[in-house]
């Protein structure tokens, strides 16, 4: 064995160690998030119920006072008054997982720090894997999975860094990231391997990297959508005078308001939709170079198209009376389902140019995309 | 009673302010008409071009695309379809009726997308006109009560109302709003690019569809396997297989020819990735036109050769042992390189060498010969059945010899890679077993009883080329790029209006009111309004408070109902 091959093997082993370490740290983060939620349940908040009943009773109270610069010569900006409009209920966002509990908040912060640490370790794992094979780390499902989960956490941390109210996502994210990595190291593990010539194209790098990023962002959008559905039922129940179960009141009350969740998931989905469009086009260009046709209804291409149309449906639904809100949310979830199926389902159940390992030059050794 | 009327008037007022912030078709649940044929047509058209039906058709398109990904399709894999037909005798005819073996060209799938695109055109045309109208007109004047809008602010100032309005007009124009003074207020609007983007996106979809359809109708795709030293001229008869769109005429084939000089594959020599292909390249000489000058080039996997509108792709490779067959008298009856089919990633290959005519057996009777061939480019002791490496390191050719009638004249098409042994008999070795022998380059296998011999002379490589023409792909790409930019503009730009009203209050002090309205609630609108107000405030600084509290505090009772109409369809908050 040559010296270079030995270093590569060492790097591959280092990568595996890093991925396992990242899983350990994610597990710690997971428990920290759980603790945050548990502490949060100590404080009885019930803000939503209060807000809903208050707005029903004290309707005559002036909601708005006009602010001005004051009578002095101090130059100050006039204050902009914002009012809720449309059908959205004027419900405040929940306080977050810690429910206003200080200790809970502390654990939440610890959890985020651990997530950052785990993210860095995982990113190191992905990087060493890439170095060990001297190519981008997405030649097979194992590599795709570790990259995907790392990017998803990266998206979450970026949103946090941008001071978006997303810490409540942490628990769901670490849960799925652990599942994803667990699946990667057990079922999907593949020895580091070279790509066949059909995969040597810079369009591949563009296509797959944007696909991974889109998937990560769609995933964040899907989690928010799902929580929106729960939170919306919860608010509906409260507004209708019902009493939700204890778990629902404690858990859902701490999430942002349904309207905020809805808006958040819309923004997230809408923001990546053009990128997803681009991903498909980049894939078509690559297919044009590699297979002599830019579109051939190969299963992977078909499911990318279905995913795209499903998200287009969702965006249309948001602009169509009678389809906003819950119905649109179901569409968004269905669209994400299509994305998931495109990755797991098509790779596992359907064979096509993207997945079969034949011996022609078009062989794409069970590659993710 | 009078309250309700003013309420309604105000509602309309606000409605007008928020109207035309988009060109989306208005949602009307039109009831079934009673207007005879024309009425019906109009009703149908209105339904077809409504957002609701567009949504439905989009959903159908997504659902309709699913079966094609799960059921084998004739367009991509004929053999799988044949296989499926064999295994599902009941289901297959049903699938046939439903066009499920060619979903993407089936009647029902076509119906969905054609309807969708008719709907799309029926949607784009009026929206474009409406948008042009909006560009020609001016932003609508300020609603009566700006305090009802989703974002507003107000202050009192010593400056004269005219001064404030002029300052506001200049400020808004500087911020690239389209602005004008209407009555006692400035009306301004910005973000028209959103609408442009949306229209461009939808038009680009049509361009893409037309380009794709055009490409399907006029496309061609053919394959040609060439052994090193062999050549190809672009005419129909030379193809191994050929497919083309309905409107493609073989006269349209670009005239060119090429020869395969040399094929080279390199592989990872050691380590965990041993045997993984590194590069494949085919060196060609080619000539454009019938009598073009010869040029040399190299074709690689993702780098096709482009000649006119045709592209030549390298799609597969394998080995072709050079075989010489002699009859009992030593006369050469066959001598050629025979391409074998690769079976695995180390290019273990198999195939058949057929000697159709010219051979006479020991008794002088005309017969046909066939050799079942298995080929290992790298033979390793201990592994007799498969190759250990894809390159030609230690080639071994295993031959099984047969004689008899190949049945090629029976009219049933035969694969050149398969041997029909129905009328063939195996040659027997000394022990009475099937004659079989491993040959290295240069070695000869003798056929028993003076039946002749077969020699493995050496090995050439072959490459498979796919030649395609897909017109209008440039248009498809242009459409796709336009779609992305249109989409980005449509999704990231917020169209919004700002009004600034300045009037003298009862006490002679000017009251400035500013309000902003986006297509939907968005944090950006109040933010921007705040910035604008801040700048305007510097030019029209605040005056002392009057004694009583703010005049314009609205009461909550009307809040929700009245503002509903001011805020058009949600769906584009930024
Ligand atoms: C070929 C199928 C179609 C696709 C893939 C598609 C896709 C989209 C997408 C992704 C958007 C979101 C962009 C945005 O919100 O600005 C959108 C918006 C829109 N589409 Fe389509 N569309 C299609 C057909 C149609 C048809 C047939 C109509 C007319 C009935 C239509 C009318 C609209 C309108 C009015 C908007 C803007 C909605 C708004 O103002 O928020 N589309 N479309």
TrEMBL record, chain B:
Any single Pfam family the record assigns to this protein: ResB
Region (Disordered): 1-22, 523-574
Compartments, as annotated in UniProt: Membrane
Keyword Cytoplasm: no
Compositional bias of kind Acidic residues: 545-558
Transmembrane annotation, as ranges: 53-71, 107-129, 199-218, 474-493
Keyword Nuclease: no
Domain (ResB-like): residue spans on this chain: 51-529
Membrane topology field: Multi-pass membrane protein
Start-end of Basic and acidic residues biased regions: 1-11
The protein's name: Cytochrome c biogenesis protein ResB
